[in-house]
Amino acid sequence: MNITDPEQDPPLVLIVDDEKFTRLQLRLAMEQVGYQVVETSNGEEALVAYTQVQPDIILLDALMPAMDGFTCSRALQTLPGGDRTPILMITALEDQESVDRAFAAGATDYITKPIHWAVLRQRVYRLLQASRATEKLRQQTERARVSEERLRLALDAAHMGTWDWDLLNNKISYSATAAANMGVAEVAVDTYESFLESVHPEDRQVLEQIINTAIAQRTDYDVEFRVVWADGSIHWIAARGQVYYNETGTAIRMTGINIDITDRKHAEAALQQQTLRSQLFADITFKIRRSLHIEEILQTTVTEVQRLLLCDRVVLFQLSSDGSGKVVKEEVVPGLTAILGRNLHDPCFEKQYLDKYIRGHIGCVADIYNSGIQQCYIDFLKQFQVVANLVVPIFIKEKLWGLLIAHQCYKPRQWSHFEVELLQQLSDQIGIALAQAQLLEDETRQRQELTRVNAELQQFASVASHDLQEPLRKIQAFGNRLKAMYGDVLNDQGRDYLDRMQNAAQRMQALIDDLLTLSRIATRAQPFVPVNLTQVAQEVLSDLEILIQQTNGRVMLCELPTIDADALQMRQLLQNLIGNALKFHQQDQVPIVKIYSQALEDWQSTEGEESLDAKLCEIIIEDNGIGFNEKYLDRIFNVFQRLHSRSDYEGTGMGLAICRKIAERHGGRITATSKPMQGAKFIVTLPIKHNRGD
């Protein structure tokens, strides 16, 4: 499914992760929905790439060597436009302290590992939507500022008037335009005292000080002040003037211009208010999105929206499919009826109207008594003292969750376009925050379920190691005694039955041992420490010495890297793969096994030796055995899967399943290439280093 906007260029995603395999997965996830992708492997590269390509969103790994994601995020904020580019932090850390740290570093959102790819794509889509809406608002604000500046210049030229003040006779004369700006007759001769009376009372004292200073210090007169016209309206005036003196240094005259700057002041106030609201929106968004708990998100929403809009009541109404629902959170001013927790059903709220909200409809009523709405709806709102309301739908993963509603209860209210748009943007952020909290709850339940399953698996391991093996040991012991004491007495058929019983007991013992090994990969795992794989492989070859002699095999071991791993599990992994390479050999050929490694990034050579500083390595076990058809590739790594009968090759069919589980536990993977009777190559990809928390 492509979720890009066909009318806009595909969004450009910057992926920052030190693990190549993770970067590959992230690239595929983004390209599947039509996004463009740029990759970097560390924080320093990310800063350079950002300045070069200006991405629309950044997917940033929190835990990286050298510069971690938190440091990188803070550095991105200082770059041009960096504070407006959404950052989705990807982390294995999910404690509240780490989440707070991510948001404090400038992250817009976060997602935890293991990554749910469908959730990731929706999260990126929502962040891009919110970012574009915010950028649109910023551009509108900038265009309004530029337009206002141009308008100001034009108005200044049109509204400029001259005035002359005879200081000796205390007479002020105005041009027609200057008089109009002051709100007096077109041709007017005024006194200083009457001029001051027209000035707004709050500005008179400051204005007198500026005039006196200009006269005393022989400086230019330059001031902005308010005047009150005869009709009571307030207007802003910008006045500039110069003082003239006689030969004795006495001030005799002041002349200048005045301009009506009321429109400019209103525009500046509106711009300042819009900037303030934009900042408030960012602050509210931060408060809503930083929480991990649904109850806290909902309470923060109603509290902050009520504070921002200065309305009488804000409620979050969670909808049911029939249009009824429940008020799950409320913030209301004192004196009004509280409706928190009430189940409500609007008799006018039919499916047709519900469908409008599903399509994104916004309800905006300035006065319920003069808006042409149905009487049943008026009666419904009156019981809650509502006079005006603003209703915005909230979506979680494109599904209608409920409504964010603002009430004005004591008087009508004309909701501004900005308020409507702001509330709509906030509803998007609420939807993302709720989806995030839901995901956390789902992950918590999954983790609890996984803990329960692991406990049951541990219990099974205990049962298998004792209750199952005890009767099996008796079967084996009594079978051995029976063969030793009565083997000569039994006829051929009896000895055949006994041999089959003992072989079945041995297979059962091997199967139990392999099941225990598989279960203990997670339940009895050891912490990761530096493990020299060359040394581990040499120990495995020593253990397999008899099998090598029996098959006349030749094993060539090259230098392997040292990686962060569970040493015991690495031994199990190599023993299974090398043992299989020797076991599944062609009868007419000497088995040859090659064990070597390679990095997924170019190794740097130092004095002729290869440096093993690459982020990922591949451990390869290659043989000249019987091979297999690659159409069975997925099947061979499953539990109990065999491609050959037990009579041809012994085993339980668990070995490769154990190998896959070990590789996955180490954050890696295992695959193979092969053709029948042309050998096989098993490739294990593993990280060289493991960050704390991964």
In short:
The protein has 694 residues and is α+β, with helices and mostly antiparallel strands.
Describe the SSE topology.
Layout: E1 12-16, H1 20-31, E2 36-40, H2 43-53, E3 57-61, H3 69-77, E4 87-91, H4 96-104, E5 109-112, H5 117-158, E6 160-166, E7 171-174, H6 176-182, E8 188-190, H7 192-198, H8 201-217, E9 221-228, E10 234-245, E11 251-260, H9 262-290, H10 294-309, E12 313-319, E13 325-332, E14 343-344, H11 351-358, E15 363-365, H12 375-382, E16 388-396, E17 399-408, H13 417-486, H14 492-523, E18 529-532, H15 533-543, H16 545-551, E19 554-557, E20 562-565, H17 567-583, E21 592-599, E22 605-606, E23 609-610, E24 616-623, H18 633-636, H19 655-665, E25 669-674, E26 680-687
Q: How would you sum up this structure, described in words?
A:
This protein is of the alpha+beta class and 694 residues long. Helix content is 47%, strand content 22%. The radius of gyration is 39 Å and the shape is elongated.
Count of helical segments? 19
- Give the averaged pLDDT, no decimals: 81
The multimeric state of the shown protein is: single chain
Biggest sheet record:
6 strands, antiparallel
Strand order of the largest sheet: 8-7-6-11-10-9
Backbone shape: elongated
Indicate the radius of gyration in whole angstroms. Answer: 39 Å
Low-pLDDT residue intervals, each spanning 5 or more residues:
602-614
| Portion of residues within helices | 40-55%
Distance between the termini: 31 Å
Proportion of residues in β-strands? 15-25%
Query: What structural category characterises the helix and strand content?
Result: alpha+beta
**How many E strands?**
26
